[in-house]
Amino acid sequence: MTFWKNKRVVVTGGAGFLGRCVVRLLKEKGCRSLFVPRSRDYDLRNLPAIQRLLKKTQPDLIIHLAAVVGGIGANRENPGKFLYDNLMMGIQLIEEARQQGVKKIVVAGTVCAYPKFTNVPFKEDDLWNGYPEETNAPYGLAKKMLLVQLQAYRQQYGFNGIYLLPVNLYGPNDNFDLKSSHVISALIRKCVEAKKRGQKKIVAWGTGRPSREFLYVEDAAEGIVTAAEKYNKPEPVNLGSGFEISIKDLTYKITRLTGFQGKIRWDSSLPDGQPRRCLDVTKAKKEFGFKARTTLDEGLKKTIQWYLESLASKSNRSFPR
Fold first, then answer.
1. What is the DSSP track for 244-256?
2. pTM for this model (two decimals)
């Protein structure tokens, strides 16, 4: 509580899916001076906007969560945009933070930065052992360059920047737009809509053979805030649950939890993405005591419940009594 009491903190992306949880947790921990820049006011791809932001807020600490991101389909359709936007936001923000004397910056990277064929579980030392999976590579490489920048700035300028590697996130307030969503939110929406319409099948991407690890969004926020308090080293740190599940098993789990009893048609013409993803999470536990607390079943139930309640709320607003 005392760590945050007199800190001036900026959370980029603080109005987003992960950012909301981070901001809420910071307030609970006693952070009194907290600023969340909105993209309409501060376009972080634009250097003058970053300079204006830092001059106005004069932060002691920045948590950089802002990102342009999506699922496999969105990555495949926007490789140039995802590379440019994420690279420009991060590189300019880090440079201006250094120049303006910010004491610390926390940068959220991505599991997409890991090589396509990485031994499981992914260890932080494996990060440079190959090229990322092709559909995610522009986004993953853009975010990975921010690690290089932070390490170079620490070496030359003594600038305290840390880099975290969250695995795939899910939870309430996730993006449920089928054009840009990730796998869990997309499957939840498909199952709920199919059940409501009486459809007998849904279509899932790929073969279902790849595996993934998922981290509940509130656990991710706890890991980020704890690292901001306690971690001050140049090496990247994984944030995950340490639990791996195949996409096929995940899909059947979601159909069961949503009550959808139809069939799954696997469209193998659509990409699978990276073959496997599962992180070695021992460093986060060792360095700053972080361990995920929410099981996948528990997190899925909470996410499905939130989605159903959000649909009901929208329906009530559309048809007032």
1. EEEHHHHHHHHHH
2. 0.93
Long-range contacts of 45-50 (CB under 8 A, 24+ apart): 45/84, 45/85, 45/88, 45/89, 45/92, 47/92, 47/96, 50/92, 50/93, 50/96
pLDDT given for residue 319 in this prediction: 45
Pairing of strands 8-12, 61-64: parallel
Q: What is the pLDDT of residues 122-174, one digit of tens each?
A: 999 999 999 999 989 999 999 999 999 999 999 999 999 999 999 999 999 99
Nearest by Cα to 233 from 284, 196, 172, 268: 284
Phi/psi of residue 9, nearest 5 degrees: -125, 135
Cα gap 100→299, rounded to integer Å: 40
User: Could you list the active site residues?
Assistant: 139
Q: What are the DSSP calls for 1-21, one per residue? A: -HHHHT-EEEEETTTSHHHHH
Assign a CATH topology to domain 2-318.
Answer: Rossmann fold (3.40.50)
pLDDT for res 292: 97
Q: Give burial (CB, 10 Å; 0-12/13-18/19+) of 118.
A: buried
Instruction: List the one residue out of 52, 1, 51, 45 whose CA is nearest residue 27.
Output: 1
Which contacts of 41-46 are long-range, i.e. CB under 8 A and separated by 24 or more positions?
44/12, 44/88, 44/89, 44/92, 44/93, 45/84, 45/85, 45/88, 45/89, 45/92
Residue ranges per structural domain of the chain: 2-318
* pLDDT tens digits along 19-68: 999 999 999 999 999 999 999 999 999 999 999 999 999 999 999 999 99
- Let me know: does 191 contact 262? Beta carbons within 8 Å: no
